[in-house]
Write a structure and sequence with these properties.
14% strand; alpha+beta; single chain; 2 domains; Double Stranded RNA Binding Domain; 145 residues; elongated
Length: 145
């Protein structure tokens, strides 16, 4: 099962804020006023950074970094579903027209679904994943203190 969770490093910034960086996703770096704000900003920065990978024609980085001082950050559910669709489509080796036929949509709608910048509703992403032989699974984690 693929999840979109990466470990982040939280450090005191030069000012009073907290700087967050992701060793496995160097493009994702942000800052928050306090720990709660830094976590929120980290989720957004990670989401935005990961969505640039398909645009640049790059595979998503594998979460490899481990360490006691690192904190797991998951992308938002809608972003995870979008990333899953983009990865599944790339692996499927089919055309956008083929996908449109599979999900019973116009090719223009498929182009929007496959556009990392376009906000797609979860039911459309779920149906697309199903057509690509995947199933979306939602999980809940405890927040780290």
């Amino acid at each position: 099962m693929r999840s979109y969770v990466y470990r982040a490093e939280f450090e005191r910034g030069s000012r009073r804020g907290i700087v967050v960086s992701f060793p496995d996703v160097p493009e994702a770096i942000t800052e928050g006023r306090d720990m709660a704000d830094a976590r929120t900003m980290a989720e957004e920065a990670l989401s935005l950074a990961l969505l640039t990978y398909p645009v640049r024609g790059l595979p998503l980085p594998k979460p490899r970094t481990k360490g006691r001082k690192l904190v797991e950050i998951a992308v938002a559910p809608d972003v995870a579903a979008k990333l899953a669709v983009l990865e599944a489509f790339a692996v499927a080796g089919i055309t956008k027209s083929d996908l449109a036929r599979r999900i019973g949509k116009d090719e223009k709608e498929v182009r929007r679904i496959l556009d990392p910048k376009h906000p797609t509703k979860l039911p459309a992403l779920t149906a697309t994943l199903r057509a690509l032989g995947k199933r979306l699974v939602v999980g809940v984690m405890e927040e780290a203190a």
